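Pipeline run #58 for the internal structure catalog. This entry was flagged by the ingest filter as a single-chain record with no existing model, so it goes straight to prediction. Upstream metadata was stripped on purpose; only the residue string is passed forward. Reviewer on rotation: M.T. Logging verbosity set to normal.
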Amino acid sequence: MLESIDLSRKIKKSDYKGPKDELDIRLGGLQRRARELGVPVVIVFEGWDAAGKGTLINELILPLDPRGFDVHSTLAANEEEALRPFLWRFWTRTPARGRIAIFDRSWYRRVLLERAERKMSAEELGQSFEDIRSFERQLTDDGAVIVKLFLHIAKKEQKKRLQKLRDDPVTAWRVTKEDLQRHKRYEKDLAGVEEMLAETDSEYAPWTVVEATDRRFATLKMFETVARAMERGIAAAEARQAPQAVEVPASPAAVDPELRTSILEGLDLSKALDRDEYDERLETLQERARELEHEIYQRRIPVVIVYEGQDAAGKGGNIRRLTQKLDPRGYSVVPIGAPNDVEKAHHYLWRFWTRFPKAGHIAIFDRSWYGRVMVERVEGFCTPDEWRRAYREINEMEQHMTHFGAVVLKFWLQIDPAEQLRRFQQRQETEHKRWKITDEDWRNREKWDAYRLAIEEMLFLTSTHYAPWTVVESNCKWYARVKALQTVCDAIEERLAAAKDPG
C-alpha cells in the first residue's frame, strides 16, 4: 500500500501562505470551541525516522493556545513504566475534556519499534493490536477526537536527511546507531508498518498517511486532517448537547421474574463456620498469603483484587483479614468513592488506570469501576448508552491487565435483606460503629430490587475466563472471609505454577 503512494507531491511557496494562514485561524477557533464543549483531542504523530515529526508538531502548536495542550514524547519505557501494562503510561496521559494531547510517537511504538527490535510472538502482537483498538474505541466512545498521522518518506529520502543531520555538528547527536540500523532494515519494517495500519485503521480512529517529502505539502495536509477531525468531533458534541427525549430505563418489574437469568438466586446464604474452624483456617491462609506475596514480588506478577457487595456486606472486614499479615510495602488498598472534579474531566476508567499496581505488587479495590454499571446506572449518574457499553469496556480493560500477566480477582459479597437490616440496626445502636451507617445506606436499601437487577446483569456480562467473578455467601462473616482468602491464595498459586511451567 505505502509503496504505491506518490511521494513527489509538492506545494509551491506562492501557493502555501494563503491556505496556511486560513488554517491557522481555523485551528485556533476549533481549539476554543472544543474547550467550550469539553471535547478532548488526541493527535498521534508516527512515521519513519527523519520524516519530520518534530517539525510538523512545531507547526501545529504555533496557532494554538499553549495553555490548552500538552506534547508527549514517547521514548522506550523507563523502569516505572515497564512494570505496568504498556497502555498504562498513555492512559495516564489522556487529555482532560477540552484539552489537546499531542504524542510524538505513541502506543504504536510497541507494534513498530519494539516489535522490530525484540522478538514478539504472534500471540503477543495480536493482543497488542486488540488492546490498542479497544483503547481508542473507549476514548472515542467517550467523546474524544483521535487523529493519527503516519509521516511517509522513501528510503532514499530518509538516507539523505539522516546524512544531512550527521554532517551538521549541531544536529549530529540526533542520529543514533539505532536510527542507522532501522534505516538499513527499511524494507523489512515496511511490512510491519503496513500491517499496523491495516490492523488499527478504524472508523472511529482512522489513519492518515502524510506524504512528507515536501514540508509545505505535509504541513497543509496535516492541518487539514486535524481541522476536519476536530470539526466532526465538535459537531457530534453539539448534537449530544442538544435537547433530546429522556430515555427511561425499564423497571425491574417489567421483566417477568420467571424469565430472568439469576446468579444470586441459588446461593446458599446459610453457609457458615464455627469460631474454632474460622480461627484455624484464617491463620493458615494468612500465613500462606504472606508467603505468596513474596513469591509474586520475586516473579514480578501483579495482582488486582476487587471487592464489591451490598452495603454492610463486610467488604472492610474482609479486606482487613486479607491484609492483616501482608507486608504493607507490597500492597495498597484503594477506596473508591464518588469521582472528584479532576476525575470527572477524564474518561471514567482513567482514575482506575492511575491506581493499577506495579508488577509484583497487589492493589485491592474497595469498590471499583463496577460502580458504572451499578450505582451510576441505578441513580442515573450516566446515560443508558454509557453504562451499556461499559460492560465491553470493563472486560477489555481487565483483559489488557491479564495480557500483561496480572491475576485479576473479583468478589461479590452477597447478603440477604434481613441480614442487611440487622447489621444496619447494629451499627446505629453501637456508638463506635455509628459512623458506618448513613442516610444514603437506608435510601439504597429501598432500591434493593433495582440494584439486584443491575448486579445480576453485571455478574452475567463481566464474568470472563480471564477475570471471573467469585460470589461470596456473606451472611456469616467468618465464612466469607475464609472463602475470599482461600480464593486469593488458590488463584495466585495457579498463576505461579503456570509461570514455572508455561507449557
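catalog note: Residues 248-259 have pLDDT under 50 and may be disordered.
catalog note: The chain has 20 helices and ten strands.
status: ready for reviewer M.T.
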